[in-house]
Specification:
Order of helices and strands of chain B: EEEHEEHEHE
Structural class of chain A: alpha/beta
Distance between the termini of chain A: 59 Å
Strand order of the largest sheet of chain A: 16-20-17-19-18-21
Radius of gyration of chain B: 20 Å
CATH superfamily of the largest domain in chain A: Dimethylsulfoxide Reductase, domain 2
Number of strands of chain A: 21
Bound molecules: iron/sulfur cluster
CATH class of the largest domain in chain A: Alpha Beta
CATH class of the largest domain in chain B: Mainly Beta
CATH architecture of the largest domain in chain A: 3-Layer(aba) Sandwich
Largest interface: A-B, 141 and 96 residues
Strand order of the largest sheet of chain B: 1-2-3
Oligomer: heterodimer
Chain lengths: ~525, ~140
Amino acid sequence: MTNSIPELEESDCILVTGSNTTEAHPLVASRILRAKQKGATLIVIDPRRTQIARYADIFVRQKLGTDVAWINGLMHIILKEGWENKEFISKRTEGIEELKKELENYPPEKVEEITGISRADLRRIAEAYAKAKNASIIYAMGITQHITGTDNVISLANLAMLTGNIGKASSGVNPLRGQNNVQGACDMGGLPDVYPGYQSVTNETIAKKFEESWNAKLSRKPGLTIMEMFQSIEEGKVKAMYIMGENPMVSDPDLKHVEHTLKKLELLVVQDIFLTETAKLAHIVLPGVSFAEKEGTFTSTDRRVQRVRKAIEPLGEAKADHEIICKIAKRMGNDSFNYDSEEKIFEEMTRLTPIYHGITYERIEKDGIQWPCTNSEDPGTPFLHKDQFSKGKGTFFPIPYREPAEIVDEEFPFWLTTGRIGFQYHSRTMSGVSPSLQKEAKEGYVEMNPFDAIQLGIEEGEKVKVISRRGTIEIKTKLSFNVGRNMVFIPFHYFESAANVLTNTAVDPISKIPEFKVCAVRLEKIEEENP
Amino acid sequence: MLSYETILTTCTYCGCGCGILLEVLDGRIIGTLPQKDHTITQGGLCIKGWNVHQFIYDQGRLKRPLVKRDGKFTETTWEEAIEEVATKLNRIKEEYGPDSICGLTSARCTNEENYIFQKWMRAVIGTNNVDHCARL
Ligand code: SF4
C-alpha cells in the first residue's frame, strides 16, 4: 500500500475495486466504514455485489475484464470538465500529452457500451473522485488477475496522478495483498528477478555486494516465474522443485495440468505443516511448524514490519522452515548458514537491504515500523511518494483497452469469475481444519443469478456441472442477485470442487499473473441415471 | 500450579497484520485475544483472527519427515531426509545444471524464512528460479 491502514479513515472519497474488502481484509474494511461515517463518499466498482458494495454511496457493476475502459473513461470526463490537478501534473509528472491523446478514444457513450456502466454513473464517479480533497483507491486481485492486470494497475495510477491523489496522507493507490506475508515474501526477494529489497539480479554492483556477503558466485540471469516453471517442467528443462509452505495444487489455475506437470519431476520436495494436495505428490515431505511455534517477523499489507513470537514448542519433530533449509544448505556443502537465532538472520538481511536498513528487533519490540526505514533514526514511512516518486517524476502511460483472453460464445455462454470468501483462507490448509471456520462454510458452491437459473431449470442447492475448455467440476448452486446475468462466481478454496480446474492459464505479459478472474463456461444439469 | 501466560504476536491469516495475544496454559495454546493498543487492531479482531489458534493442534499436523517408497509414504529420521534431499539436489545440479532446479517460497512464512530460502536457492543451488504463489 502507498498509505497506511489507519490513514484511510481520513479519506473523503474511497474507491474500492476488485476487492471484497469486508471478507478478505476485515480490518481495512472497518476503517473504510469509519471514513464513511465521517462523511466520506464510498464508491464500489465490482462485477459482484460484494458485502462492502451494500454500504456504498455509488455501486456499479462493470462487465468482466473491462477495467482499463472504465478507468480511461473516468479520466476522459475529468479532463473534459477540467477537474484534473494542474499543479500536480506540471510539477510531479510527465507524459500528460500522450495520455490525453489516448483518452480521446474513450467518450462516455463508448465506455458505457464496453463496460456496462452508465454515462450518468461514470460522471458521478469521476466528479466524486476528482473533487475530493483526499481520495484513496483500494484494489485487490480483482484488478491484478487479468491478462491486462499490469495495464489495470497502471491505469489506476494514471487516474490518481491526474487528480493529484497520491503522495499525501489518506490519499493514494492501495493494493491489498492476499496472504498475510505476501508483502514480506516479495520484500525478501522471493521473486525471480530481484534480491531482497527489490534490488535487481542483473545489476553488477548489487550482485557483487551479495556475492561478497554470501561468499558465492551468483547468477546474473533472472529466474523463472511460477508459470514459466511449470512450462519448463513440461519441456523437461526443470527436473527438481522445492516447495516451502505453498499449495499450488489448489491455488494454481488449471489444476489438472499442474498435477500432471508435478508428476513429471525427478524430485519434488514439499515442506508444510499438513499433508496438502501438493505434498501428496512429493517424493519427500518435511514437517514445518505453525506461526505459533517460531520467532521472526511478518510484513503486513501497509509495509509494517512486526514481530512473530514463539508461544509453544514445535509439535512432534517438526522444525521451523528456516532451520530445515539451513540444514540442507550446510549438508550441500555451504558454511554460511550458521545462525544462533532468527534475529541474526534478520540482521544479515537488513545489512543488505536499504529499505529495511534501520529496522531491528529491538525497535519493533512494541510497535511495527513501516519501510522504507533507512537508518536507526528513521521513524519509517507511513505513506510513499511524498515529495517525489522513486524514479523522480511520475510518468503517465497511455493504455489502450484490450479484451480478456477468453470471451463467452455460444458453446460457453457464461462468464466465470473466482474469488475468496471470508471464512476460508487461500487453499484452506489452515482454515479447513479449524472447527469454527468450517462450520460457517463447509463446501464450495457456484453462485448464479436466479433468472439464469430459471432459464436453465436449475434450483437452489442443486448439483450441476460447470464446464470450461479445460475441465469439468460438479458443484452445488447458490442462487443470488449478488451476481449479474450471464455470470457465475466460484470461491477457489475448495479442493473437492476446485474452480481452478476451469480457469484460464493465459497470463499478463509483464506480471505473469494468470487470468483467474475471467473465463468462459457453460452450466449443465446432471441427468439422473436410470435405475 | 498451572502456568498461564499470553504471548504477543501477529495474526497469520491476512495482510492486515493484527496484533494478537496467544493464551498459553501449561504449554498449550487455548485461545486468542486482540491486542488492545495495536494501531490496526485497536482491541478488535475478525472471526478468522479470534480462531487463529484452532488449526495448530489439528490431527493432520505432520510431525515427522516422510519419504515415498513404492508409492507409499513412510516415516524417516531428519538425518536421512536431509541427506536424501541434499544428495539428490547435488546430483541433479551436477547432471543438468543449477537452472534445472526451482523453488517456491511462501507468503505464509516469516521474512527470515523467505530470506533464507532465496539465499539458499541463489547462493547454494546457483539459480534465480525463486517465486511464490502470491501472484495467484
Ligand atoms: S484478525 Fe482478521 S483482519 Fe486481523 S490480521 Fe487476522 S485475519 Fe486479518
